Amino acid sequence: DENDTICCQEQINRSIYWADGFVFVYSITDYESYRVIRPLHQHIRKIHPNANIPLLLMANKGDLLRARQVSTKEGHQLANELGCPYSEVSARENFEGVHEAFQQLCQELSRIIGNCNGEKRRGLHLIRPKSPNMQELKRRLKQALSSKGKTATML
């Protein structure tokens, strides 16, 4: 129902506010998954307008070249627009590429947090919401998506 959808959206917004970094993942075989990244990034920027938050753009399914709908050039263009590193990976054939991409994000996060020099970390001067209960978040999202006669709302 509508209240569950609103509550789920609030949970997602709290999760975005609570996060210290983001990984945007799309499939090279699904242009729609690529197209959703910009609006999602804009939504995150509304919640974190001035924060220096590490981002990573990952194109998955790099092994399915014959089914490609998103070019490597488009991936690089989007990464430049978002100001973040870009990785094209295949979780199926080479998990090392996925691991390296996440390591890169973690190193950037450590660098940013380490540069605080004893100052309060970004956002900690505000009352940050408690880390969301992921099981509850998953339950509410599943419930919102399975509501009969309702359409799921994307960020």
Automatic annotation (TrEMBL):
Q: Which Pfam families match?
A: Ras (PF00071)
What are the EC numbers? Answer: 3.6.5.2
Q: Provide the GO MF annotations for this entry.
A: G protein activity; GTP binding
**SUPFAM superfamilies from the entry?**
P-loop containing nucleoside triphosphate hydrolases
Out of the domains of life, which is the source? Eukaryota
What keywords does the record list, in alphabetical order?
GTP-binding, Hydrolase, Nucleotide-binding
Residue ranges of coiled coil: none
Report the catalytic activity: GTP + H2O = GDP + phosphate + H(+)
Cited InterPro entries: P-loop_NTPase, Ras-related_GTPase, Small_GTPase
Q: What class of enzyme is it?
A: hydrolase
Describe the family membership recorded for this protein in Swiss-Prot or TrEMBL: Belongs to the small GTPase superfamily. Ras family.
Protein name (record): small monomeric GTPase
Q: Which organism is it from?
A: Notechis scutatus (mainland tiger snake)
